[in-house]
User: Fold this.
Amino acid sequence: MSKSFRHAYYYALNHRNALIFLATLTFVWLLFSSIGGIGYRNFDSGIRSSLLWHLSVDPWPVWFSPAYMGERFGFTTDKPYVYYFAYYLPAALVGKVFGWKAANFALFAFSYAGTLLSLSLVAFSQVQKSLLGIFCIFISICFFGGFDYVVNLLFHMTEDRAETWLTPFFYFSNMCNLYWSPQHCIPAWIMIGILLNRRYINPTLNKIMAIAVVSLILWSPLCMLGLLPFFIPHFINHWKQYLSFSLINISAFILFCVLILFIASNDFSFPIHFSILVFSDFWKRYLLFILVEFIFILPIILYKISHFSTDEMRFIFTAIFSLILIPFIILGTWNDWAIKVCMPSIFILSIFVGKQFILLIKSKSTMLYYAGFLFFLASLTAAEELIFSATHYEISFRFPPELRDFGPGYIVSQQLGKGDSYFFKYLAKAQ
Assistant:
């Protein structure tokens, strides 16, 4: 048995209980997620299921004809489906071979593996094998949120979920992101986990980092934009490696060009605005939004911040700075810019809130009680999503609506492309 193999074996053995504990917590969390038909089927899970259905039964690339979509869409030519759907492809392959129910199970298993991987990378980078530490990190990630629920309870801003209290500005909790947009948040969380462990990454794996980042274009381009500020220090430290002439770098460049051409074939029918030009009372809205969403929770993170390393402080302040800037742009029917770009920053802040609780517990500081009260108020926002899922719980593998059934509104029109684009004329011709 080689030395490296023995080291890996004993590391896994020593962390076995911690890993089992985290795996169990993660599994319970996902049981309410609606992923793969398990848990309350929110609206987004319906359209996600439709995408998985079309990828499972239709030939790739997926096209929609005017006859299929109907007169209400007003199409005169066939439209390709242009969406960042890497998340669905493994389950869709299973569905093509074994059927719809198998595709749902595969999607759940794939999502569980990705979520557990991200949480494992985070937990073991922060607390090693302490069960209490892992529990603090897990709870902080699950229930981290803004004061949306408290504000909505006091002022009745919306009858919908509290997180939509100031439309079109949205910073959703990790709970909501996982339950409504797993295709976006899971890859972003994994990347954050990798960055937190970057000092320990095998040099060979570090070389393919460029390919991993480029691949995010087909996973979640908006989350990729949210991740870029956190990758900048890493790329600066390794710029010679990533600009060198090598097979890996050439492959990353080719992949980048292909994926950009694919995404660019979207017809970009969604709106995009500078919010400062849209709202006459922008600064009032903006300051209120920032205050409610994360300023109240910052005292927990900033308390004795000297405990954190220089890299960790860089992560924290980059996340805060990103969250301050994001609301200036509105993109998409539901402002996907704010919802998706903020995901990495929200995840990072939740991690370090959890780490602060670990430090407060160890030091037996009275600040623990104040921090606990603030976190409890913030956790009500995520708890609302969990409770709603639990009270409307179901497990169903019924066939989803077809894409056309959602109508020309909402996000269907945002996910269709141009058949005469370069990508579909030369790289992926219709059959």
